[in-house]
């Protein structure tokens, strides 16, 4: 799994935070240069810096942050080879299936390896993730990635699990199963040979269509799985802040100000900002409701009310999460 480190060294994977939606994974190599729209960043300047540092570009025109990779950050920066599972879903699945340090997990298919990274960190060095991918190119890319990220607790197998099942040379004894496949109902009957026989096993099937869910439910029931439940995660941001109370008079005053400023032209704006003795930018005296002045939220010279509202939905891949449990039969051979 990603190792925790304090300082950046030659060969380390660093996630360059270029902007809110722009994280770029780089392997630090002396002599290489990261080129961005904010300037060029020589890798040599990164070596020896603590993870989390801000570095400025060669010509001091911009800056980026150098972040330590985590499964969450990897999910938003990885090269997409398929649809992926995002953190709002993976975190819910991990806690709901009670995946913990030492757990043994089956995952199919591997896809872009987004969820594999989260599983790998959660199960830790004493656990194991058995991941399967039937697309050769994706399998090879995932293999290379897992090796370079040191996901040593992941066993990756190139296999069509729907036709060939999950058996490998090692004893699997999986306690949790995660299926992100177009036809999970074809893989479910193969599970009985590779799951733990002495404890309750959990499964989650991740499917975008309700028809897939229905077929998976039938397969689960036929194979003896119980406590079948379906969930959908619709993560949203919840915003709680102060909003300025604006009266009709304020709106009229704002319109007047717009007119006034149109008349005066935008000359004031072209001038360099006025500064006080400490170098802080001074208010030019624009209308507070116009664009000319920034008002800190809660500024006591204005009236405020508390508001709360939902933000846009977070980036996630909308799918139905189908959960079930297989309880061991008492007296059955273990
Ligand atoms: N969960 C992954 C992630 O977070 O990156 C994404 C999985 S992607 C949506 C589904 C993957 O399953 C694809 O890469 C596909 O090639 C693979 N797949 C589909 N059918 C399969 C099968 N029968 N056996 C193994 N892999 C399969």
From TrEMBL:
<feature type="domain" description="tRNA (adenine(58)-N(1))-methyltransferase catalytic subunit TRM61 C-terminal">
    <location>
        <begin position="62"/>
        <end position="325"/>
    </location>
</feature>
<feature type="compositionally biased region" description="Basic and acidic residues">
    <location>
        <begin position="263"/>
        <end position="285"/>
    </location>
</feature>
<dbReference type="Pfam" id="PF08704">
    <property type="entry name" value="GCD14"/>
</dbReference>
<dbReference type="GO" id="GO:0160107">
    <property type="term" value="F:tRNA (adenine(58)-N1)-methyltransferase activity"/>
</dbReference>
<comment type="similarity">
    <text>Belongs to the class I-like SAM-binding methyltransferase superfamily. TRM61 family.</text>
</comment>
<dbReference type="GO" id="GO:0030488">
    <property type="term" value="P:tRNA methylation"/>
</dbReference>
<dbReference type="GO" id="GO:0031515">
    <property type="term" value="C:tRNA (m1A) methyltransferase complex"/>
</dbReference>
<keyword id="KW-0539">Nucleus</keyword>
<protein>
    <recommendedName>
        <fullName>tRNA (adenine(58)-N(1))-methyltransferase catalytic subunit TRM61</fullName>
        <ecNumber>2.1.1.220</ecNumber>
    </recommendedName>
</protein>
<comment type="subunit">
    <text>Heterotetramer; composed of two copies of TRM6 and two copies of TRM61.</text>
</comment>
<feature type="region of interest" description="Disordered">
    <location>
        <begin position="263"/>
        <end position="294"/>
    </location>
</feature>
<feature type="binding site">
    <location>
        <position position="160"/>
    </location>
    <ligand>
        <name>S-adenosyl-L-methionine</name>
    </ligand>
</feature>
<dbReference type="GO" id="GO:0005634">
    <property type="term" value="C:nucleus"/>
</dbReference>
<dbReference type="InterPro" id="IPR029063">
    <property type="entry name" value="SAM-dependent_MTases_sf"/>
</dbReference>
<dbReference type="InterPro" id="IPR049470">
    <property type="entry name" value="TRM61_C"/>
</dbReference>
<keyword id="KW-0949">S-adenosyl-L-methionine</keyword>
<keyword id="KW-0808">Transferase</keyword>
<keyword id="KW-0819">tRNA processing</keyword>
<comment type="function">
    <text>Catalytic subunit of tRNA (adenine-N(1)-)-methyltransferase, which catalyzes the formation of N(1)-methyladenine at position 58 (m1A58) in initiator methionyl-tRNA.</text>
</comment>
<keyword id="KW-0489">Methyltransferase</keyword>
<dbReference type="InterPro" id="IPR014816">
    <property type="entry name" value="tRNA_MeTrfase_Gcd14"/>
</dbReference>
<feature type="binding site">
    <location>
        <position position="180"/>
    </location>
    <ligand>
        <name>S-adenosyl-L-methionine</name>
    </ligand>
</feature>
<feature type="binding site">
    <location>
        <position position="133"/>
    </location>
    <ligand>
        <name>S-adenosyl-L-methionine</name>
    </ligand>
</feature>
